[in-house]
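TA notes, week 10

Several of you asked for a full example with nothing omitted. So below is the full record: structure tokens for the whole chain, then the designed sequence directly under it. When grading your own attempts, check the secondary structure regions first.
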């Protein structure tokens, strides 16, 4: 049996991961509003499934409270969410124009061949990240 300290840290880590996953799914669902209704529904189902897992596992105060059934159901919900996310990524990859994904710098990528010099003076004032 794990010590109480290990158990407490494990549960805290689990709850933290569930919160991060829920935040990411909420962000995904909000961002899906620009896509067709089928994509929006899938994103909503993913978020709902993660909320169910969070409700099941997030309130546990000890590992003993997590029954085998709860863990199995949570694993199934996460697997369904993963498959749905893979489907969403495939849809976005197949149906979204490349410049939309790349943003405002896509014309510069298309406009200049790789070996052609690029006039960097037009990029003055741009902030780079990294």
């Amino acid at each position: 049996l794990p010590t109480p300290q290990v158990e407490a840290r494990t549960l805290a880590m689990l709850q933290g991961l569930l919160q991060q996953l829920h935040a990411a799914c909420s962000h995904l669902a909000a961002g899906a509003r620009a896509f067709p209704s089928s994509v929006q529904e899938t994103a909503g189902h993913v978020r709902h499934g993660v909320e169910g897992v969070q409700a099941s596992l997030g309130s546990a105060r000890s590992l003993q409270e997590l029954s085998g059934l709860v863990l199995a159901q949570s694993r199934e919900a996460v697997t369904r969410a993963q498959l749905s996310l893979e489907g969403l990524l495939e849809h976005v990859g197949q149906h979204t124009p490349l410049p939309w994904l790349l943003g405002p710098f896509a014309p510069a990528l298309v406009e200049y061949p790789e070996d052609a010099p690029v006039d960097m003076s037009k990029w003055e004032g741009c902030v780079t990240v990294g």
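Residues 4-31 form the longest helix (28 residues). Use that as a sanity check on your answer.
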